[in-house]
Amino acid sequence: MTDQELVPGFTDLAETMGAQVISVSGPEAVAAKLVEVLRPLGSKVALTACSLIRETGLEAALTQAGFLVEKDGAEFARQADIGIVEADYGIAETGTLVTDATDLKRRLASMLPLTCAVLLPAERIRANLAEVVEAYLASGPWPGYLALVTGPSRTADIERSLTIGVHGPERLLIILVGSDDCGGQ
Amino acid sequence: MASKEFRERIKKALGNASLRGALERFADSYVVAREQVYAGRDFQALRERIAAIKADAANRYGELADEFARAVEARGGKVFRAQDPASAREYIYQVAREHGVTDVVKSKSFASEEIHLNEYLEERGIHPHETDLAEWILQLMPGERPSHMVMPAIHLPKEEVARVFSRYLGEPVKPDIAQMVRIARRELRKKFLSAGMGISGANIAVAETGTIVICTNEGNARLTTTVPPVHVAIVGYEKLVPRMQDVVPILEALPRSGTAQPATSYVTMITGPVPAWLGDREGPKELHVVLLDNGRTAMAADPIFKEALQCIRCASCTNVCPVFQLVSGQVYGYIYSGGIGSILTSFFNSLEDAADPQSLCLGCRRCAEVCPANINIPDLILKLREKVVAKQGLPATYRIVLHGVVAKPKLMHGLLRTAARLQGPVTHGQPFIRHLPLFFSPLAHGRSLPAIARQPLRDRAKQLERPVENPRLRAAFYSGCVIDFAYPEIGEAVYQVLGREGVEVVFPQGQACCGAPATYSGDRETAVKLAKINIAALEAAQAEVVVTACPTCAVALKEDFPKLLAGNLAWEKRAQALAAKVKDFTQLVSELTAQAGRILSAPAAAGGPTPASPAACREPIRVTYHDSCHFKRHLGLDQVARQVLRDQPGVELVEMKESDRCCGFGGSYSIKYPEISLPILERKLKNIMDSGAQVVATDCPGCVLQLRGGLDQRHSPLQVKHTAEILAARLGANPKDRT
Questions:
Q1: Tally of CA atoms within 13 A in the half-sphere of B374 that contains its CB
Q2: B212 Cβ partners below 8 Å, 6+ apart?
Q3: Cβ neighbourhood burial of A37 (10 Å; 0-12, 13-18, 19+)
Q4: The pTM is what?
Q5: For the segment B389-413, what is each residue's pLDDT rounded down to a tens digit?
Q6: What is the Cα–Cα distance from B727 to B730, expressed in whole angstroms?
Q7: Which tens digit of pLDDT belongs to each residue from B522-559?
Q8: Which of residues 221-260 of B touch A (CB under 8 A)?
Q9: Fewer CB in a 10 Å sphere around the end CB: N or C, chain B?
Q10: Complex-level ipTM
Q11: B680: part of which helix (H) or strand (E)?
């Protein structure tokens, strides 16, 4: 897969696997887009502390738009409608998000609410899992909790009927940041 | 013979329409979906890579376990090595007790079922809650057995699940799947948020980093390992791989082979304790990894059976198994089902526990074709069968037939000749036995049996053997019992076709049964005896080629004899020399015609003999081809046969659905398990009849027997022909009809 194919490849597979991919031109466009997309999906947001989330001024934008933003506490994410996290990598071959989720709040925010929004810089898309494993191996001690997520939570346990949203989110939004510069759609 | 309780289970499963319907629907769509999800990938290379990784690991579990434990402990986790289920259970119970745990959330784990953890904890006042939806449903239905390794509740209709949920909630629940999934989410969320401990299994354990890898689509493993302050992972030694990069091919194959998905929704890799909410603050959770042996290191030390430790538990072998589709995991018993399950059970439980489950294998080899860990499951099952027979002995009827008759060719041939004379009343002068008296009747139920030929091929051979001037080749014909005694006309066709090709054919009279019935019954002793008899008889013929028209015999001569006699220096060499000469009839025809640069049925072009009645043999016929299991999966000649048939002018080859699906014969299998063999035959017959062909061709006389018998009982005008018969008829010399 060439670099030009990574973004469309990832987008295609992620959507096939049931995620919704939303492209924005750069970090400055994230907040407005998320406010617009998330408005119909609830009012309580569990926000994790990630660099891209800070950079985009998301907290202020969400608060200003009337969302209730929680960032901490014993009940974190338990009652939230939406969790917002950031991913380290995307895998084009399978439409997978890869995140070092050692931080407890990242795990809770991405699993407990019905909607999970994940920010992914487009330049972090890699062709396959082998490349991603190599990248983590090269960058120091292996993460304590590495999460690979492909599409929303799903089951086919009753009559093999595919049903979305069992224990994890039923809606997975991937905000692909800066994809316009990377030969995206 | 299978135990009474086992037969009862089979009967119950076969009578369960919703179970059969669900498994069949799944299996049908699985085959197609699997094909699609692997499209463009080199499956063979992938599975060889996985097999190499897992085989290497199995050679050094001790070393890898040490490395794994050091890595986990360096991160602050604990590793407990459990020799047996009792010590594993006790350790986990003690951890729970120390923390005052009353409720445990569990993410699906075979290992925990293997050690009967739930019952143990429950008896001690600790409540385990399964969180995989199917496992939870089954947990709410005491006494209900899982029907499939990956989809344990596939057999339950939604109405049944609604009844279970209604009972659990004490309020009516509608059989609406989406609604029921929401109920499960709500109810199990409470358990996740209140449990004091999470218990998971693992799909892979990486020695290099001390990482456990868990795959779930629902996300329950993520919650199980995130919310409670204590995590216990139960990991069999066979999950160990040396390096982190080794997870890549396994994660490529597992979802594709398991459920035909490109990726599992949640793949979680846990390395050491991670932060958790400890009730009043965030802090490191407690991580315990229980490394479970329970027969695994003994298995790894076994030069033959260690191969089964390569299994990645995708269950694709059961998804393509024609027997599993009929009886489900509920019949196999214990934790691991299907053919691979019986092998694992023989080590994790006992040989006795594996005796009945292993006997269900039909030997069709479809599983070996799809196994992403490249495990030769059918061969391992035969080895297991030998072990069972060595320990328990052959069932009495088998002992009498195999030792007393088959191993003594003169006696067997004499008995068959006598039977040919005496069978008049049952065959009513027809070439089929439609009804059998008394206790033999299940054999002829749904399938007529062929009558024994009045004159076996071995007695006709002299008349068939004609001197060939300047023969291109001298071939010894190894007919096998079915052609010899039931279908000598197939043998005659072989003589005619090869004769026209300038091959001098001889019939070594000393040949006996190839031993396949003994091999597939686990009777090594008889198989060895017959191998020697046949090697001596076929050597005496001094032929360049040993030709057979039965793929089961071909496999016996080519593959089994050298294995059976391995280690016996003189005999091993002789077996190998014979094996090198063995050639299937259709393969030989294909080679001879290619050499001659022409196709078989255009002899005039090459100056050969002119067909007796060109018009008759050019009459177009529509032929569909049935792949015999041994012919396709052992000999790999499926395309060769099709090409040979296509080369016949007037033959229109049409493909049936599932042409390579077993016909259900399996030699003595159809006698051992007629109740399973028959529905497999029925499906095959339907596919044949739906193909619109007038003739079904196959290269195996066993399949001919099974298919002719089935079509006869259904009064179908469809003809079943061995490829040799079609070629002979096309030559214009119809083989004589049997009288």
A1: 15
A2: B200, B202, B204, B205, B206, B233, B235, B239, B269, B270, B271, B289
A3: middle
A4: 0.92
A5: 999 888 887 888 888 888 888 888 8
A6: 5
A7: 999 999 999 999 999 999 999 999 999 999 999 999 99
A8: 222-223, 225-227, 244-245, 247-248, 251-252, 259
A9: C
A10: 0.96
A11: helix B674-690
